Amino acid sequence: MAELNEPLTERELEIVRLVSAGLTNKEIASQISVSPNTVKVHLNNVFTKLGLHTRTEVTVYAIRSGWVAAGNEPSPAAAVAATPPREPSLPLPPDEMAGQAQAPSQPAAAIETTAIAEPPPFADATHKSTDLGPSVLMRDIVPFVPIVPKVAPNPTAMPPLAAWRKVALIVTLTIVLVGSLISLPTARGTATPNDDGTNVPSTIENGFLAPGESSRWFQRANLPAQRARAAAVAGNNNHIFLIGGETNQTALGDVLLFDRVSNSWRSVGAPKPTPVWNVAASVVNNIIYVAGGTTANNVATNRLEAYDIAKGIWRVLAPLPRPIAGHAMTTLNEQLYVFGGKIANATTGNSYVYDIASDTWRPIAPMPTPRSLISAAALNDRIYVVGGYDDGRESSQCEVYTPASNTWAECAPMLLPRGGFGLARVGNTLYAIGGGQAGFVGFNERYDAANNRWTSFETPHIGNWRNIAVASSVTEFYVIGGYNNNQRLNFTYVYEVFNNRTYLPDLKKTN
């Protein structure tokens, strides 16, 4: 997996040069004979290694590093009035053959919004520079002809290897390859019968794993139906609870229980009094608290309702100070904390704490950066509020709240911006899963609080995996439903953080 400040590979450097020339992912894929998805993965690695987020930033970085020379090509402002240069061997369009240069059929502003093929955050459709050489807009005004940039030579080439070193290298690579093939498992996973008679693979295929390495992702029994934007919590007795959510944007109120021992889902208890989606939930002392969310009439609610797991009944508690949806909620010292979200179509940073004993809410210091579709988790008497979405852009922001002092501080941002994702806590590590509300996501991330550092780990879904429900237990976390590439899901996944089990023989003396 790519890491910050890791050197670029030759392939990644080649893609940087082509991006700087204004080529789209499809055009790059065609030029270097790979698939567009492969280009996305390489470009994603470039963003991670360079610590950048947009194609424009990569272009500027490449020019400043000497990988690409800006040259004397016309600026984007001049591109509307001037015809970009073409190779002499290429035929001219009919309008130029006749000596007539036609104006573009749509306004320049409209051209600019359609010129970038990739969605944010991997393309910047609003920030253009007049000194970056070839303009992305040129190809929308006339039939596109790639402008090849002047490329700086690669950094200090390696001297040629001596003959004996070549032989030693070949032998070493052969031994490594043979060892890798021998270490490959005979089967990547088994299949277990699902409730509907289908087979569900118990392990997940993943291209990010090294040869012979086993994934910690496992697939469990599917949900009875596809569902997204729900809330999940881990109860006692090996149970995971899923509450609310939507199917075809219809708010749901049923309570589903997943039994980890029998690997099955079933409906339990009374339905939630107020069906909601874009909702948050937390569990304290066998009571599940569900706050806010979007109701059946597609407006936010301020309802706080509590589900008694043992009795299977609901209670209505003191309402939130304001209706809210797309917020985050977590528990610390048997108090509920709510952060951010949307209030009346406006993103907010308002934050509140709920005292369970007195059934009262009070405001606390607001988030420094207002945003919705965020996630939060408590760790070591502090609460981490991560990611989010605002004004069409996802965020990689990480902010940490300390209840004792009612203050906020910054923590290291995630490697990728993520909105509509999930945050799990197992042990002293946080896990950011999914995202892609407005962009491509090719891996998940884990946060080491001791070193204030995010690193990547594998994912079952490439592209986007958003509006999921996440529940953490002592040794693992569950990821349920959501969307992947605009398809609503009914999958149940578990990621085993501590999956090294030791079985001891029974040494008890028998008669």
Write the layout of secondary structure elements.
Elements: H1 10-20, H2 25-32, H3 36-50, H4 55-65, E1 68-69, H5 76-79, H6 94-97, H7 108-115, H8 138-141, E2 150-151, H9 163-183, E3 191-193, E4 199-201, E5 217-220, E6 231-234, E7 239-243, E8 246-247, E9 250-251, E10 255-259, E11 264-267, E12 280-284, E13 287-291, E14 304-308, E15 313-317, E16 328-332, E17 335-339, E18 342-343, E19 346-347, E20 351-355, E21 360-364, E22 375-379, E23 382-386, E24 389-390, E25 393-394, E26 398-402, E27 407-411, E28 422-426, E29 429-433, E30 444-448, E31 453-457, E32 469-472, E33 476-480, E34 483-484, E35 487-488, E36 492-496
Brief description of this entry?
With 511 residues, the chain is an alpha+beta fold.
